[in-house]
Design goal:
By secondary structure, the protein is mostly beta strands. It has a single domain (22-164), classed as Immunoglobulin-like (Sandwich). The chain contains one helix and eleven strands. It has a five-stranded mixed β-sheet, with no helix packed on it. It has a four-stranded antiparallel β-sheet with strand order 2-1-4-9, with no helix packed on it. A two-stranded antiparallel ribbon has the order 6-7. A hairpin with a 2-residue loop joins β10 (143-151) and β11.
């Protein structure tokens, strides 16, 4: 009986090994600036400035710069890769965009927001993208914009952009 129980427990060991917790070492930024991209979908994100976030594909860097023109239709941000293990594992990250003072005020809700934030799942080792797109006139706010990526309550990456009037 003991031998059968021991064999059964040994068979379970590989199952626990596959369920190991992800370890995030850092986030590497490899590109930043002004982008163009195709918007494929909008996902509800109540804590985002406009109440949603865009899902984009065909991301193209139009200019490597941290100085962004304050103009409707401009999209800016950065491409990055989550470095850690196991490679290919999905991890939840918290994405924050901090707006310049006094913040953004959506005319539909009359609510002033100092930041936009949402949770999203990313993949360790896969290139990904964080951006902000000036889709509405009320979003175009000159000043310093800060984009952050958090994991497990720790900020792993921060990128700053200076939005300027033309």
């Amino acid at each position: 009986m003991r031998i059968a129980l021991s064999l059964f427990l040994m068979l379970l060991l590989p199952i626990g090994a596959d369920a190991k917790e992800p370890k995030i070492d850092r986030i590497d930024v490899f590109e930043y600036g002004i982008y163009t991209a195709d918007i494929n979908a909008r996902v509800a994100a109540p804590d985002a400035a406009a109440g949603y976030r865009n899902v984009v594909t065909n991301v193209r860097n139009a200019a490597k710069t941290r100085t962004i023109p304050a103009q409707k239709g401009i999209q800016f941000g950065f491409r990055y890769k989550i470095v850690g293990s196991p490679r290919g594992k999905q991890v939840p990250v918290h994405v924050v965009t901090i707006f310049p003072p006094p913040g953004l005020s959506d005319p539909a809700t009359h609510q002033l927001k100092a930041k936009s934030e949402y949770d999203v799942v990313k993949v360790i080792g896969q290139e990904t993208f964080k951006s902000y797109n000036f889709e509405n006139d009320w979003e175009v706010l000159p000043g310093e914009w800060t984009m952050q990526i958090w994991y497990g309550g720790v900020m792993l990456q921060e990128q700053k952009f200076n939005v300027v009037k033309q």
